Amino acid sequence: MGSAGGSTVAPAPEAPAKVLFVTGRLAEPALRRVLEEMRPRFETEVAVLKITVAALMTTPWIARFLEVPPGTELILLPGLVEGETGILAERFGVRVEKGPKDLREIPRYFGQALAAIDYGPYDIEILAEINNAAKLSREAIRAAADYFQASGADVIDVGCTPGVPFPALGDVVRELRDAGMRVSVDSFEPAEIRAAVEAGAELVLSVNRSNREVARELAGSGARVVAIPDFGEGIETLPATIEALERWGVGYLIDPVILEYDEAELRRLHAEVKDPNFRIFTDRTTITVFNHELFVRGTDIQEIFAQLGVDEATHAFYLGRELAKAKLAITLGKTYRQEGALSWGYLTPPDDVRSEHVKLTQRRRRPGALAARRGKAR
Predict the structure, then answer these.
(1) pLDDT digits (tens, 9 = 90+) for 55-77
(2) What is the value of pTM for the model shown?
(3) CATH hierarchy code of domain 122-254
(4) I want to staple 101 with a disulfide (CB 3.0 to 4.6 A). Which of 74, 79, 83, 334 is the partner?
(5) E-strand spans in the chain?
(6) Domain ranges (residues) in the chain
């Protein structure tokens, strides 16, 4: 257990003065980063229990090993912890809650989004994306745009699909503009960006080192771009893109938040894993699966599954389902969360309930089999 840093600002009314965040060894670094960036208006402590994966904890187990420092007014558990919080509340005499299932949503859990109200006037515009527009008919695109505009969207975002030609993109943007709509384009492909902006798109999502040279051509067009970190890198890569945009006189917005782990961070997590349970992560294009023995990355879920060497039927079913969901998340630009439902706004279904009949733990391998399997894993 250790301090994650306190705040020098007095907590708001009804806010806890001190919160104890409970986690496991694997998630500790990420949790501390979230709290440091969050800069909450209350004192924080982090209790790291002797378990690798926080989601495997239960409230009775936590009650046996947790130590609560004096002054704690709220104990926040990981959202996937099983068991009733009342056990801990009775044991420690402190309010206990289960937080979000994704620790990166902790700021929102404490209403940090509302803090912007204290910083003065602001403008909000709603952007509605038509996903995979390249695969839709012109009629379907127009129907979706009309629906989004009627629902209150300020900007209609035409989402392109990597690797799928979209020769009608310019005509689609022009049609929406002629109908009085404001339009943006979601693409990293320079040719698509040019076509959309020439047809009247006012915003380009997104540019970084991979494609920022095309932004030079947008100077004087009135179009703005969204600057993001380089793929697989952090916000330290943003300044180079921003400096180039300012030098060229191109308007821009900054989006520093990528809800994904890069390969270097995943390999650091892998080094901490000591058990055979598989963890699954995605970024924009790639699926990563690892446990204490294997680290596999790829884009083809059948090839990934073949490298895992799973021969137990219910475990194979579980991994097949999760890999298919991970691939769907990449295709649709959604955030993948293992054992969690994909987010569809208010249409998001509840997370799946763990089945007693589905084994989530991979059996340990014989040394010979492990050596052969490691030769194939990437």
Answers:
(1) 778 899 999 999 999 999 999 99
(2) 0.45
(3) 3.20.20.20
(4) 79
(5) 2-3, 18-23, 43-48, 74-77, 95-98, 127-130, 155-159, 182-186, 203-207, 224-227, 251-254, 279-282, 287-290, 295-298
(6) 2-117, 122-254, 263-374
